[in-house]
Amino acid sequence: MIFPAAPGPARATGRPGDRREAAVLQQIDHVGIACYDLEAAIARYESLFDLTVASRELHEDQGVREAMLRVGEGPAGASWIQLLEPIGPDTPVGKFLARRGEGIHHVGYRVTNITAALEAIGARGVRLLDQRPRHGSMGASIAFLHPADMGRVLTELVEPPET
Ligand code: CO
User: Fold this and answer.
1) Are strands 103-111 and 25-34 parallel, antiparallel or unpaired?
2) How far apart are CA 56 and CA 69, in angstroms?
3) Any idea what the CATH number is for the domain that residue 41 is in?
4) Residue-level pLDDT at 11
């Protein structure tokens, strides 16, 4: 069986929105998991995997309380499990739970430059739920891509804070 040759690597042009920027996904930053009961979900991950909670946050603008548990170190730093409990039914995660029940809510990819990545990915025709980055967990800048353009996977870009 013959497959068409894969396209060669795009060349960097140095322009803003350089197509190559969109491919700068360093690693999976975190997997977001929707749950009814945050404490029960934390207890599951702590007791089964000996993970510990590194951060608990309440994001009223997003309608969630959440916990970040460090999974391990990758080449570009730690990866995380993000447990999400809605603060009410009329929130994005609340509606997700009503529609689909508990489970994986989104995948977060770490990028080096979220503004450039958003611009480049948007230029490829993916609708952006966030036109510009906003504040996420643990001081990161985040933005979501529309799941309808991502095979029904809610996809988040994450640029960690400067260390
Ligand atoms: Co997330």
Assistant:
1) antiparallel
2) 9
3) 3.10.180.10
4) 43
Q: How far is the CA of 6 from the centre of ligand 1 (A)?
A: 31
Segment 81-99, tens digit of pLDDT: 999 999 999 999 999 999 9
149 in a structural domain: yes
What spacing in Å lies between the alpha carbon of 156 and ligand 1's midpoint?
Answer: 6
Residue with tokens 């945050």: 38
pTM: 0.84
Residue 14 domain-assigned (yes or no):
no
State residue 55 phi and psi, 5-degree precision: -160, 135
**CA 144 – ligand 1 centroid, Å:** 9
Q: How far is the CA of 109 from the centre of ligand 1 (A)?
A: 9
Domain count of the chain? 1
- C-alpha closest to that of 34 among 107, 98, 95, 103: 103
* Domain with 67 in it: 21-159
